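During the second year of the project, the team shifted from modelling isolated chains to modelling whole assemblies. The rationale, set out in the original proposal, was that interfaces cannot be judged from single-chain predictions alone. As a representative example for this report, we include one of the complexes processed in the last quarter. Its constituent sequences, exactly as entered into the pipeline, are reproduced here:
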Amino acid sequence: MSNDSQSKHDQKLVHVLKTSAAIFAEKGYHSTSIRDISRATKMSLAGLYYYFASKEELLFLIQDHCFSTVTMDCKRLIAGVEDPIQKLKLVVENHLNYFVKNMNEMKVLSHEANSITGDWFKKVNSKKRQYVDLVKNLLGEIARSQEVKGIDLRVATFSLFGMMNWIYNWYDPRKDADVTELARNITRIFLSGFLGSVLPEAAETGRESHLERPVSVWPQ
Amino acid sequence: MSNDSQSKHDQKLVHVLKTSAAIFAEKGYHSTSIRDISRATKMSLAGLYYYFASKEELLFLIQDHCFSTVTMDCKRLIAGVEDPIQKLKLVVENHLNYFVKNMNEMKVLSHEANSITGDWFKKVNSKKRQYVDLVKNLLGEIARSQEVKGIDLRVATFSLFGMMNWIYNWYDPRKDADVTELARNITRIFLSGFLGSVLPEAAETGRESHLERPVSVWPQ
DNA sequence: AATAACATCGAACACTCGTTCGAATTAATC
DNA sequence: GATTAATTCGAACGAGTGTTCGATGTTATT
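Output from the structure prediction step:
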């Protein structure tokens, strides 16, 4: 008897990955031991290694799967849409919705980006770059069509990602507004800021830096 | 013979803290061993413990010092300034300048916020809350005076911090514009987005969510 | 020069870590 | 029901961890 879509094996792997992601999200990758995962999954230490080859591969499986899905969903969502602004709104909405719905995995993706090394790092990073470029190009398109001036495209792109990816540090679904409202807020702040050449010139006074001298944490 | 401002002991402590911050920033707190720090400072393993009581206290010393300085500089900078918008600009400028000038320490502050526990965590966290509230209140002041509507203050505050704190993930002083330009970009994007009620209503179409169903990373 | 305080270190301890291996158990196939 | 394959596990290994301790060297004070 062969299963249709998902074998027993894959189902259990998914369960292991989901449980691990939750612990990684809570304690961090490096301070999570395989023994922690063993305890949470009620599997033996050695038994876990039937599902992944090493702790780092486990991290890779989580990150890779997560990135693949969010990118795929994103591309599918904006396919066919013409207006680049509309596209961007969909991208932000997708990203935030995905983030909130899969907070553990996304936190592992954001926070443990440098906990993975070697070829695994390369593979995840190339997917990341692909996703970032998609957004950057979208912003470029918008900038051209709306004649946005004086904003560095790289700064703008990472400012947007900063806004979106930072939420794992503060967003609490029980306390804060739902995702739709969150997406509306962030989209509006970013987009109207990115487009908005409208900051009153009066507020632009003091163009030079106000800092007398470079400040350093430690004396000398 | 007593030293005036900084004793020999404090100077060496500062050196240890700065070196440790650099390694923590590069490898992460949990995968940095005291032996790594021993190697980098050319001090013996046991010798280091003359300057701090435990690895976690070392992390605390870095974070606490960093937070104290940035908050103090910030308050000093905006003291006497009336216009809340002008104040905010100074806060952003100070934060980013500090971040870039002390990238290692600030990365440790941002990225290892949950690597510290117990009373140390409480102490650092209360300083953090103080700083965040300062910015939040400033935004509230601006919102009232400029009649900003429809933006959640909490979302706005953390969006700003997201933009600013995310830079350790991408900012490269050799590649990107200098801090003044960076601050100008980020201030403009955020402030004109926060104030800007000016997003054309045409672009506000599609108020309902475009996502057909909640998406989850893992099937089921 | 003797004393006290400061500073440094080698060597070890107790512990946790990721990983492996061979055997045992269960499920699938013939 | 026998054979093969898939899955699980207890027990251990070797390496690395944070931390301590007693001793030694160094500097400042009397």
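Confidence is low (pLDDT under 50) at residues 1-5, 200-207 of chain B. Chain B has nine helices and no strands.
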